[in-house]
Amino acid sequence: MLTNALRCLLRNPVAGRRNMSHSSLAGKVAIVTASTDGIGLAAAQALGKRGAHVVVSSRRQANVDKAVALLKSQSIQVTGTTCNVGSGEDREKLVKMTLDQCGGVDILVSNAAVNPFFGNIMDSTEAVWDKILDVNVKSAFLLTKLVVPHMTKRGGGNVVFVSSVAGYQPMQALGPYSVSKTALLGLTRALAPELAHSNIRVNCVAPGVIKTRFSSALWQSEEIAEEFKKQLSIKRLGEPEDIGGVIAFLCSEEASYITGETITVTGGMSCRL
Ligand SMILES: NC(=O)c1ccc[n+]([C@@H]2O[C@H](COP(=O)([O-])OP(=O)(O)OC[C@H]3O[C@@H](n4cnc5c(N)ncnc54)[C@H](OP(=O)(O)O)[C@@H]3O)[C@@H](O)[C@H]2O)c1
């Protein structure tokens, strides 16, 4: 019987490949920005549980230390450093440290975002726009530009941007932030065809309302949370793990024919451009 199975595999190598786990990320190195809490931390956990060595970072050393300790306690291979993605110097330090300590990079999850402004879009200032576009959009592109040559050297890789349902339907009082998240949908589509030549896939996830510190204004009041739930098919708010798994899937061989896409992960909130 064993001989028959081996003969079948020799005649049909694709069947053999299909039997291997296509979700495994063993041997891969993954940079996840803003990964000491919330969605970034959940993405680092999901990638790490599939065997990737994850490089976690955020602005505060104490948060980095805490996340590294947590991931180590879960037997995840992890390295940590501080990185404010809005700083060019910090972005370069993050990539250099990854190359020095992990020998290369295969995956970039660009997850960091800020929102310094709530209110009518017409009241937003140039300083607000500069900050939002620098951190949420430009840094995502500039980090991609830094890692692409190193992914190319390893024969390919994956980039995942974290957008938002607000990128499809601007949220009230979050105009500039919402526009920055729409820009990431465009960035995904602009990069994907160019980087496909280097076997690098570029995709994006657009979370709905996920229970994290960042979105606490949207769910801490029972009344507002109930309003959001009315818009959902699945009547609960999202958890960071709901997004982490989708990000890991996009970086895996299971998604090897997906590029230039944004997956909305919203519990069924309807969204379209
Ligand atoms: N939560 C939601 O409902 C929701 C929905 C749609 C999209 N998103 C998107 O998901 C992403 C993550 O949000 P989250 O909800 O997971 O936030 P979160 O739980 O509040 O975590 C934010 C993380 O970002 C780090 N951080 C903040 N500013 C940074 C910067 N300039 N450079 C590097 N790290 C930075 C924080 O650590 P430090 O303080 O140490 O820097 C922390 O680790 C964002 O892009 C957000 O727009 C969230």
TrEMBL record:
The answer on whether this UniProt entry bears the keyword Oxidoreductase reads yes
Task: Fetch the InterPro entries from UniProt.
Answer: NAD(P)-bd_dom_sf, Sc_DH/Rdtase_CS, SDR_fam
**In Gene Ontology terms, what is one molecular function of this protein?**
carbonyl reductase (NADPH) activity
Q: Which domain of life is it from?
A: Eukaryota
Q: What keywords does the record list, in alphabetical order? A: Oxidoreductase
Do you know which PROSITE patterns this protein is assigned to? Answer: ADH_SHORT
The reply to whether Glycosyltransferase figures as a keyword in the UniProt entry is no
Checking Pfam families in the record gives: adh_short_C2
Q: Which family does it belong to?
A: Belongs to the short-chain dehydrogenases/reductases (SDR) family.
Write the protein's name: Dehydrogenase/reductase (SDR family) member 4
- What organism is the protein native to? Myripristis murdjan
